[in-house]
Write the C-alpha cells for this entry.
Amino acid sequence: MADPKGFMTTPRQDWPRRSVEERVGDWDEVYVPGALLPIISKQADRCMDCGVPFCHEACPLGNLIPEWNDLVSREDWRAAADRLHATNNFPEFTGRLCPAPCEAGCVLAINQPAVTIKNVECAIGDRAWEEGFAPPRPPDRLSGRTVAVIGSGPTGLAAAQQLTRAGHTVAVYEKDDRIGGLMRYGIPEFKMEKHHLERRIEQMRAEGTKFRTSTAVGRDIGAAELRSRYDAVVIATGATAWRELSVPGRELSGIEQAMEYLPLANRVCEGDLESSPMSAAGKHVVIVGGGDTGADCLGTAVREGAASVTQLDIYAQPGAERDEDVEPWPTYPKIYRLSAAHEEARDLETAPAADADARLFAASTLRFAGDVDGHVRSLHLVEVDAQRRQLPDTGRTLPADLVLLALGFSGPDRTDGLIEQLGLEMEPRGTITRDAGFATNVPGVFAAGDAARGQSLIVWAIAEGRAVAAAVDHHLTGSSRLPAPISPYDRPMTV
C-alpha cells in the first residue's frame, strides 16, 4: 500500500469524457485523450489493500487488483502490466467495455465511492502498448497437436492465445470478414476504437495463431469435416440468437433487431459503406430494451442524426443508491447509471417524454402501427408494475419510424448447422450442454463462452476462454499449467 490514507484524502475521479457537443459529432471514443494518466496514480492510491479483497471474487478473471493498484501508485508500469496480463489477456478491452463488478465488490464501496479499478486497468493496458510491455509470446516449442476455435469474440480469442502459447497449433474460424465477433461489429466505435482490437490480433498472429475469416463452420465447411482435421475443437460462437417481440404489427418494415442495425454502423466506420442502409438520420427512433445493447443503439442513433430517440425499459427506474436489503454489498447492484450514450441523450433532449435521459421505465410495448405502405409509424405502450401487469389508464403512443429490438439473446445461432452436424446436446434454455471440464457430448469438442454459459459479460467471456484452454490442454497432453479461473458452473455473486 503506497498511501495508507489515500482513500481518506483523495476523492474518486473518473476518466473525464469529452463534451457532448464534441463527441456526438464523431465516432471516436468518448473520453478525453490523455486525461487518464495524470490522475490515475492518485486514484490507485485509494486502494485500501484490504485484508480480504472482495474485488477478486467479484471478477471472474481473478485479477490481482490490489497488487497492480499498488504498482500503479508507484508508477511501476512494467510490473503492473505483468501482474495484469497474468490474469487477463485483453485488459484494454475490459477496461473499456466491462461494467466493473469488481468495483461493486470493492471494500471501500461499503460506504464510499469505490476505487476506479476499471480506469486503472485501462491505463495499464494502454501504457503496456505504449511502452512495449505487451510483445508477442510465441511458444518455445510446438506440441504437434492442433486445435480449431470456432468464433473470434473474447472467449475464442482468449482460448486461442492461451493454447497457442502452450505450444499447440491453433486456427480460429470466423464467419464474418473480420476477426473480433461482437467486439468488431456489435460494440460501437465510440465505446472501443477498433485499433485496440487490431493490435491484439497482430500480436496473436506473431505468436502463431492462424485466422480463417468468412468461414461459417457448418455452412462453408462441414462441422464433421473440421472435427476430423483437428485434435480438438472449441466452440465459442457466442449467444447470437436474438429474442423476438411477438406483438401485433411486428411484421411492419422499419422494425429491426439491434444486431442487424449496429453492424451496419460499424461497417461505415470500417470504410465498407458510405452510409448505413438502416441509418436513423431524420427518423423518430424507439429502442425496446433497457440493457447495454440498447444503450449502444442509442449512442449510434444520436450520432446518425435521429430526429428523436427513446429507449424503453420494462423495469422500474432504479434508485441512485444500493438497496442493502435486496442487493447487499458486495453483489453488483441494479442502480441508476448514466452511460455516455444516456448522458448525450439527456443533454440533447432526444426524448422529451422520457422519465430520465432517453429512457421510459416500466414500459411495455403493446403493438405497432404503420402507414399504407406497411412501414412502422408509431409504437403503443403501457406502464407495468413489478410483476409486469399492465396499469390502467397509462397507455401512450410514441412516433416511431425506426424501432430497434434489444431484448437480449437466448443462445447460439443454429441456422448454420454446426450444432446439428456435430450432434451436440443442448440445454432447455438453448445453450450447449457441457460437463465440468467444458467438454460436450462429442469427444474432443469443447464449448465455452456465451454459447454454453448464456449471455454474459466480457470478463466472464475471457475467463471462459482461459479456462477452456486449460481443459483442452489437459485433454491433449494429460496435464496443464494453464490457469483455469472459473468452472462451467460458477456464477456471479448474488443474494
In short: The mean pLDDT is 96. The radius of gyration is 23 Å. The CA atoms of residues 440 and 477 lie 18 Å apart. The longest helix spans residues 458-477.
